[in-house]
Every structure is written in C-alpha cells, then in structure tokens.
Amino acid sequence: MKFQEMTKEEALSLKNTLMAQYDAFKAKGLKLDMSRGKPGADQLDLSTELLKFNCAKNEYTSRDGVDCRNYGVLDGISEFKAIYAEILGVDTDNIIVFGNSSLNVMFDYISQCVTHGAGGEAWLLQKGVKFLCPVPGYDRHFAILEHFGIEMINIPMTAEGPDMDLVEEYVKDPKIKGMFCVPKYSNPDGITYSEEVVERIASLKTAANDFRIIWDNAYNVHDLGDESDYLGSILKICEKYGNEDMVIEVASTSKVTFPGSGVALLAASDKNIAAIKKRMSVQTIGHDKLNQLRHAHFLQNAQGLKAHMKKHAAVLAPKFDIVLKKLDAELAGTGIAQWNKPKGGYFISLNVLDGCAKRTVELCKEAGVVLTPAGATFPYGKDPKDSNIRIAPTFPPNDELETAVDLLCLSTKIAALEKLTA
Ligand code: PMP
Questions:
Q1: CB atoms within 10 A of CB 43
Q2: Which of 87, 118, 133, 189 has its CA 20 to 30 A from that of 299?
Q3: Phi then psi for 217, rounded to 5 degrees?
Q4: For residues 287 and 149, what is the distance between their CA atoms, to the nearest angstrom?
Q5: Cβ atoms within 10 Å of 236's Cβ, excluding its own
Q6: Is pLDDT at 387 greater than 70 in this prediction?
Q7: 335: closest CA among 351, 347, 323, 349?
Q8: Centre of ligand 1 from the C-alpha of residue 135, in Å
Q9: CB of 223 closer than 8 Å to CB of 313
Q10: Ligand 1 midpoint to CA 141 (Å)
Q11: What digits encode the pLDDT tens for the residues 285-328?
C-alpha cells in the first residue's frame, strides 16, 4: 500500500510498530560502514599475486628494455599503455600513465586550467567561470570545483545520461567552461550514457573555445553480469566533429587491483597530450614505473583485465542482489522510494520521499550504520529535494550488508511516516 494513501491513524500505528523494530536495532550496538565505495577484502585478495615480483626473471625491465627501477619515461611504459589503449579505444600515443590516482589527475588538470588556461586565458583571470555538473554525481568532482571557486550548475541526469537539452542551452554562455561526466555505470546512479547522448556531447558547439569535458571513465570495465553496457570511444567520436581537444578522459585500476596503490591514466588529443607532457616535465621526472610494470604483468592485456573483472563481478553481483532484493521486498509499492538496478559500477542510488534523505541517513547513523551523507551527491552538498541517498554495497561482508539494508529500509519508512504524519 502507498504510504500516502494511509489514514493518519494507520500511519501513526505503523510508525509505532516500526519504531519498536528500530529500537531493537539500536540495542544491537551495530558499527557498520557503507559510506564509501571501497572494495571488500575478498576483492583485494584477487590481486595479491600482483605483489610478487620475480627479480630473478628480470621483472623490472619493460618490454622496451627500460630499467623500471630508474628515472625515465615521463608518460608511462608501453605495455601498460597498450592495455588501456584497447580498453578505451584510443591510440597508445594518446595515453599518459600517471601515479596512483585519477582524482589527482583531474585535480591537476583543473588546477592547470585555472592558473594557465586551456589554450586561452587562465580561468582565474576570466571572472565567473562555471561548470556543468550532472546530478546526482560524484562528491569529489564537486569538491575540486569548489576548491578552485568554479561555480557549479546542476544538470539533472535522465535514464540516458545528462539532460542534453539543458547542456546545449548552457554552453551558449562563454563562462561555461566544462562538465564532469562519469559516462559508464555512473556514480551514483549506475547509468551508462546512451549513444545519442554521447554523440550530442561530442558534437557540442560551445561558446567557450577553452571548454573541457572531464570524462571520468572510472567504471569502464566494471560489469556485474555477462553483458556490458556499450560506451563508444569519446575521443574518436569527438574527432568526427573536430572536437577532440574538448575532452580529457581519465581512468585507473583503483577498483581493478588496489585502490590507492593502482595506476591512473589519461587519454586526450595530440594537442592536449603535448601540453600536459610539457607541464609534467616540470612537475615530475616520472611516475612509479615498477607499479606500472607489475600491473602490466599481472593483467597481461585487455582480455586479461576483463577476465580479472569477472572475478570481481562474482563477488559483487551477490552484494547488489542482496540490496536490490531487500529494497524490492520492503519498499516496492510504498510510494516513498525509487531506485536504479545498475548493470555495473559500485553504487545503487536510492531516492526516498522528498525532504527525507537527511533524516533517513540520520536514523541509520543513530542505530550504527554510516551511509554517505545525504546531499553529498550534489554540488555544495545541497540536494534541492533532499531525496538522494548513495548506497555503497561493496565493502561490508554479506551478513553485515543484509543487516545494514534492513535498517536502511526501516529508516526510510520511519522518516517518510514522520513527514506524512507531521
Ligand atoms: N572517479 C570516480 C567516479 C570514482 O567513483 C572514484 C572513486 N573510486 C574515483 C574517480 C577515484 O579514483 P582514483 O582512485 O583513481 O583516484
């Protein structure tokens, strides 16, 4: 039954029953964390072999004969580039391999645009620079923009990606300098941009000639089942429209091998690669090639990487199932929640009754389950509807996940009833 159709008496009576269940949860003294999209320990175990370096077999020398223990090779070793060139559908020359974090690469790129511009005047000197932010989105993207004082504009996500009618309208303003995108299994909705949306992005006619799309392809190989959502190569599609300088694509092995100890990379046009390398030559003599080499040996090639991701899927698919089954059993037909069923990625996006997300998260916290703070999926931490909650099911063991989602469903109902009976 829809909660909105209950009489006040029915709603109050149900609330009392649910509060008794909630108090029982509280008495358990739970301490569970579902706040961030971290892999579980069983997923980390899948990559332990990576740490076994065989020096006797000369495993510190790259296939081009580079001694990876030493300085040199600013943009990364070729065997690592080759793996991601195939995955992303770009040429190896259009890839730069970095250190351990793609977030760091994005921060650096924006920082460089602010101080030195993106082929035009420094953004710092162009007052009132703005970015488009598909919402809900990734809080750390928003944090970068906020850090540099770049104003953020919400662009609602549709089932196919960002609302492109709005995007096309906004880019007529030369102050709009870019857009952050997570095009495959987006964080947190798990949406993959449709071919039409990708084509419309690639063919954008922007008033700013220093407009940049940060194409954060963090979940490009992170399927949960046998089927993979299709996402074309943005660089190649942009080339068709002469827009190849507009996009900076990033990815990393953070959720392939070890978050924090993986390898990050960037793919971009010839012109952008040259500009970034020039800046890098001031910034570093080179990144950690031993880690790149370890990863190349471990993953072998694009096929090897995909086979490795199947092992992750075997661990993750049951976790997503646990959450989705419980949401279905507890919240379907109540009229107080709606959620996505992603085919990959790391998150499930739950939209509770408007005005109830903060309260739901608070109820969970008081009973010992920490979720991503409500609002975090929007710029400035402000969800205009106070409705979106990001569920990160990967980290807790399955039994703890079951308990956490039971509590989440209960809290969703209580928060809704509090609002409806107020
Ligand atoms: N982008 C997205 C969309 C993410 O969800 C995350 C977090 N895993 C990152 C980037 C961070 O990636 P990295 O570890 O490479 O910095």
A1: 21
A2: 189
A3: -90, 50
A4: 29
A5: 15
A6: yes
A7: 351
A8: 16
A9: yes
A10: 9
A11: 999 999 999 999 999 999 999 999 999 999 999 999 999 999 99
332-341 per-position pLDDT tens digit: 999 999 999 9
Give the Cα separation of 392 and 138 in Å (integer). 13
Identity of the residue numbered 121: E
61-300 adopts what CATH topology? Aspartate Aminotransferase; domain 2 (3.40.640)
- The residue to mutate among 84, 110, 135, 140, having the most atoms of ligand 1 within 8 angstroms of its beta carbon, is 140
For residues 311 and 309, give the distance between their C-alpha atoms in angstroms, rounded to a whole number.
Answer: 5
Query: CB–CB of 382/375 below 8 Å?
Result: yes
Is residue 29 pLDDT above 80, yes or no?
yes
Distance 143 CA to ligand 1 centre (A): 13
Residue 139 reports pLDDT greater than 80: yes
Query: CATH 3.40.640.10 residue ranges in the chain?
Result: 61-300
Residue with tokens 């995108």: 181
Phi/psi of residue 233, nearest 5 degrees: -80, 110
**Separation between Cα atoms, residue 193 and residue 217, nearest integer Å:** 11
